[in-house]
Amino acid sequence: MKKQELLDKILQIIYTVKEDKIKLQQILQFFRDKIYEEQEEIDLPEKYKKVVSEIADSIDAGFICYLNPDTLEVEEIPEKMINHPYEFEALTGGTFEDWDLKHDDWKSCITIEPLESHESFQIMEQFANKMDDINFREQLINILNRKRPFANFKAIIENSHHRQNWFDFKTRRLENHVKELLLNELG
Questions:
Q1: Could you tell me if 173 and 122 are in contact, meaning their C-beta atoms sit under 8 angstroms apart?
Q2: Which of 14, 47, 73, 168 could pair with 68 in a Cys bridge, judged by C-beta atoms 3.0 to 4.6 Å apart?
Q3: CA separation for the pair 169, 161 (Å, rounded)
Q4: Residue 64 parent element (H or E)
């Protein structure tokens, strides 16, 4: 059978049970367990694996990270200090001169910035679409389609039993993002 014929047969089966929530959940669970492969693990040279989590945590917290690929030294600078230095100084009293930054002197340097808001939004969408709990998934999708999606998403996740699943999911996505960037830079 050709691929299109196989797909048509699968869709026919799904269509016959489209009104049966339990059967749809069973099909979804089967696909996730047996067919669908989670985002592939990115194979990074062993040397760099130990800095991936540190950098992922830092960019999640709003820091721009500078990595010396030779020594694996990492410098973190708040994004606000670079993009809005006067606002940063007004809030914290700190300036560039207060920081003992070394990355400008490194022979080579890889810069990793926090995700853009649309990239963070995509991670939230992926998590929502991955949810087995159909009611919670619909609630998350509804929140993502209204005003203030970030604040409302955070509020509902913080008060749910899916909180740890969200943090684990987001961490894996951020770590894969860092690995992809490192692979591209190390090329």
A1: no
A2: 73
A3: 14
A4: strand 63-67
Q: Predicted confidence band at 150 (pLDDT cuts at 50, 70, 90)?
A: very high
CB 98 within 8 A of CB 59: no
- The CA dihedral of 179, 129, 162, 177, to the nearest 10 degrees, is 10
What pLDDT does 65 receive?
96
Tell me the CA distances in angstroms from 129 to 80, 112, 160, 164, one per residue in order: 32, 27, 16, 17
Domain ranges of the chain: 46-112, 117-186
pTM over 0.85: no
Amino acid in the structure at residue 92: T
CA dihedral for 52, 53, 57, 63, sign (positive or negative): negative
Q: What DSSP letter does each residue of 112-151 carry, written as one string?
A: EPPPPHHHHHHHHHHHHHH-S-HHHHHHHHHHHTSSSHHH
Instruction: Look up residue 18 and give its amino acid.
Output: K
Place of tokens 């592939």: 40
> Which H/E stretch holds residue 82?
helix 79-83
Alpha-carbon distance of 8 to 60, in angstroms, equals 42
Of residues 123 and 2, the one with the higher pLDDT is 123
